[in-house]
Design a protein that fits this description.
Elements lengths: L1 H24 L17 E2 L14 E7 L4 H11 L5 E6 L5 H13 L9 E4 L10 H17 L4 E6 L8 H8 L11 E2 L5 H6 L1 E4 L12 E6 L10 E2 L4 E3 H8 L10 E3 L17 H6 L4 E3 L6 H9 L18 H14 L1 H4 L6
Parallel strand pairs: 2-3, 2-5, 3-4, 11-12
Antiparallel strand pairs: 1-4, 5-10, 6-9, 7-8
Helix pairs in contact: 4-7
Length: 350
């Protein structure tokens, strides 16, 4: 029951976060781009920190900015700087080359934070469209970079127009009393006008295919609201815990396996091969709990019933007593192999 409750809580928080961002940025998109290459984006500079109190919480900041924001970014960064935190600046692709160079010189040369090397600048920025999915992509991109290079407890996203009302010491002290798995996400399921204005429209984000910044394109045709999950809306600005950030970016609770035995032609066609009696041994040896696909009433199904499921005609399946058989040993062998760290970690999303 405890595991089930934990799963439901995790699922609910995740659903709230993504549906919130879904309504804010991307009601529906016609196309999306792969983020595999963007995860190779160079960042500069970073040097591991030493002699910092490891018991106090640390924050990882994303500061998003655009053309004409360099002075605001400089002032904001100085106002929120603390040697135990980490800072990633994303000056988007709309800003001219001169502003990117100015920001790079600032990051590399400012005497306040130069000794720590904990301020970084995205070297290959994205073109960000307000309310478009490129805003969400940039946030996830920043999470991925910060997760890969730094140790921190909470992720905070700010724009160049934000400014703090407390010192970083105040923030660190206040958060030191909190469980580090809490996420601060303003949300509501009362969609109101956003149901029609954000939930139903189909949009195209020019930032996905163009090098010139412009507003999102609104497609005339609308679609019905999804029914498979509940939509939430709220603020785009959040404090997200590291475990939740890892879940969003890495999928660290996901095993990269579908637990099905499937046989494909070479080269593969649209659908897999139909399985028959000649595939029986391979299916058993795979240790997988399911297989596909089968023709209706194929003889191999009777063989599976008899030899693997031990089913008898008109038998009453199931019961109060748990009686695992050889299949449990085969499946457990597969699961243990999948959960070995050398297999589990290297097969995660990267």
């Amino acid at each position: 029951m405890a595991m089930k409750k934990l799963f439901m809580i995790s699922f609910t928080v995740t659903s709230i976060f993504f549906s919130l961002l879904y309504l804010l940025f991307a009601p529906t998109t016609v196309t999306m781009t792969s983020m595999i290459e963007t995860l190779k984006t160079p960042i500069l500079p970073f040097r591991p920190q030493q002699n910092l109190n490891s018991t106090l919480p640390r924050f990882a900041y994303l500061i998003s900015a655009s053309k004409g924001d360099t002075q605001k970014v400089k002032r904001l960064l100085r106002s929120i700087y603390h040697r135990s935190n980490h800072y990633l600046i994303h000056l988007d692709l709309e800003a001219p080359k001169s502003e990117h160079q100015e920001m790079a010189r600032f990051v590399a040369g400012d005497p306040l934070f130069r000794p720590e090397g904990n301020v970084m600048l995205v070297g290959k920025p994205n073109l960000v469209t307000y309310r478009g999915p490129t805003m969400l992509a940039t946030t996830l991109h920043a999470m991925a970079l910060l997760l890969r290079c730094c140790r921190w407890d909470w992720f905070i996203n700010l724009s160049a127009s934000d400014y703090p009302l407390v010192t970083q010491d105040d923030l660190i002290y206040a958060f030191s009393e909190l469980p580090n798995d809490l996420n601060f996400i303003q949300h509501t399921s009362r969609l109101g006008w956003k149901m029609n204005k954000r939930g139903k429209p189909v949009i195209i984000d020019p930032g996905l295919y163009s090098l010139n910044k412009s507003e999102i394109w609104w497609v005339i045709k609308q679609r019905s609201l999804p029914t498979a999950f509940k939509l939430f809306t709220g603020s785009a600005w959040t404090f997200l815990s590291r475990p939740f950030s890892e879940y969003c970016v890495i999928g660290n609770t996901t095993v990269n396996h579908d637990l099905h035995y499937i046989s494909w032609d070479n080269p593969p066609k649209q659908h897999p091969r139909n399985l028959g009696p000649k595939d029986f041994r391979k299916m058993v040896m795979s240790n997988r709990p399911f297989a596909r696909k089968f023709k209706r009433n194929d003889p191999v199904l009777d063989k599976i019933d008899k030899e693997l499921l031990k089913r008898k005609p008109r038998s009453k399946d199931g019961g109060a007593e748990l009686r695992p058989g050889p299949g449990a040993r085969r499946l457990r062998s597969l699961l243990m192999r999948l959960m070995l760290r050398k297999n589990f970690d290297k097969r995660q999303c990267r």
